[in-house]
Amino acid sequence: MNKSKSNTSQLMRFTLPFWLCFTLTSPPLIAEGKPVLEITGVESALQKNMITSLPLASEPCDAPAWRIRQLFRRSPTLLDQAARALGYYHLKIEKDLSFNNNCWQAKFNIQPGEPVLIESVNILIQGDARQDTEFTKVQQRAKALSQQQLHHGEYEKLKDRFVSLAEERGYFDGRFNQTRLQVNTKTNRAFITLEYDSGPRYRIGTVNVEQNTYDPLLLERYISIKPGDYYDATTSSKTHRSLSDSGYFEQVSVKQDFKNATGGKIDILIQLQPRKRTAYT
Predict the structure, then answer these.
(1) pLDDT greater than 50 at residue 24
(2) Does 181 lie in the same domain as 215?
(3) Predicted model pTM
(4) Residues 174, 162: contact at Cβ < 8 Å?
(5) What is the mean pLDDT of the chain?
(6) Is the separation of the CB atoms in 80 and 91 below 8 Å?
(7) pLDDT in tens, 207-246
(8) Which domain does 266 fall in, by range?
(9) Are residues 89 and 29 in the same domain?
(10) Does 143 share its domain with 98?
(11) How many angstroms separate the CA atoms of 47 and 82, rounded?
């Protein structure tokens, strides 16, 4: 048995055990063993994140004992990382490893401590997106994170939202000048700073339609993309959907020519494959 304890304070605990079981084929007259991985003392979301972080969770009963012990020794570090991802920076762990009934049992009792809260969210937007209401909405929603529990996944989602919104609305030169997440473990407070430079918003250059079957004037009613308009991915999607739903085409492709985009303009290529006509005899 390998057992280590750290000092614990008197905190209210949540007990949500997790049992990890494997069914093995055992020789006659030998008790069937099942691995047990138990994590107690934390709420379900944190518990799930911890379980996912442990390679030990996937080990069967017949794994070499040395490997189980090795993974068990590594577990506190991985549990701490999993806890920090959800804002818990003061983890205390009691752990126990034993081998019974032809298998292993690993138990971790956790005291997560108080979570880190977000003290402030400062976002600076430069470039044409400063006047874009969609970016303003993201900026305002981000400020609502203040005084919420730190969640590293949500922080990454916030950054990803700026990148995806820039792609959707034609800011193809956009980039972060600064992304900073500071955590003060003494005060349990976090500070988020983002500086995003969108650059110019691109306009539509030429719209090239590749097809030889239908009158271009007929197709205009289905094409919402117009030269000179600001690029907007929703307009491209609408055009794709309208052409697909027209019933004229087997395949529809709407592509942006990123390679040759210059001078704040981007060309659009629409490729259409006519639907095969049904022959009646």
Answers:
(1) no
(2) no
(3) 0.79
(4) yes
(5) 88
(6) yes
(7) 999 988 888 888 889 999 999 999 999 999 999 999 999 9
(8) 203-274
(9) yes
(10) no
(11) 9
